[in-house]
Every structure is written in C-alpha cells, then in structure tokens.
Amino acid sequence: MLPPFRPALLAFDLDGTLIPDQDKNLNVETSALLAELRTLDLKLAVITGRDGLSDRVREEACLHAEAANNGGTIRIGDEIIHTEKLAPEDLDLLLNHGLDGGEIVISGEGGYAVPENSAAPREWMEKHGVTYLGSWLELCPTGDALRP
C-alpha cells in the first residue's frame, strides 16, 4: 500500500544497490521490482559515480532520469540536459598534482586511459566492462588531447 503522499521521483544508487558490486547488469529480481514500481506511475532515477549506464541497463530499468559522474552528467530520458567540464586551470591542477601514491585515471564512454606504468586496477575496470584504451602517452604523445 502506498503512503497518503506520492513521491515525485524515486532515486537509487547503482553499484551495490541496483547492481551487485561485481556485476554490470540488473538481475532478474531487481528488474521485476523496478517494473512493479513503474506500474504505480512512479518516476525512477539512478545516481552513480560511473560515467553512465550501459544502454542495456538504461532500457531494462526504464529510467526517467540519470545522474552520472557524481552529478557531472544529467540525463532525462534520452536527452543529456547538463554536462560539467573541467576548466583548463582545474585540469592543469589535476594533471600536475603532487599527491604521493595518487594517480589520475581519465575515463569516458569509450574507455579509460592512465599514465605510463600505471598501477590502476586494470582487471577491476575490465571486469566492470570498461575498455582499456592505453596510456596517456600512447594516446596523445604531445599531451594536447588532454587539454580542453
């Protein structure tokens, strides 16, 4: 039974909530529960730190909205309505950071790139369906493509 008030939107985290941590797709039970919620005319959304959802998950979940990249990309239906981009000075700060043991992984819809001799968790990324594109140097010997 629904409460006397009606929520406008139900938003869910993705990893570890709708999708098990070591997987990249919705399981049958989750798909069925989301379908049941949709029969109640509730709008559904996902909020994730991922770059975005796969087309398969987006179709299975029948989402009204999606906030990816920790809110850096917002999609309503099939339309991206907001995208945050790094300002040149912020990108310089990131690329020239001096954190001991820190590492920057640049990722996007096509895959991810890392510095030379990276310790990035390649096996974990591939397990989660993220394609390794190469090192920054292999992809862009001059470094120009890393700048807006």
UniProtKB/TrEMBL annotation:
Name the Gene3D superfamilies on file: 3.30.1240.10, HAD superfamily/HAD-like
Which SUPFAM superfamilies does the record associate with it? HAD-like (SSF56784)
This one is known as: HAD family phosphatase
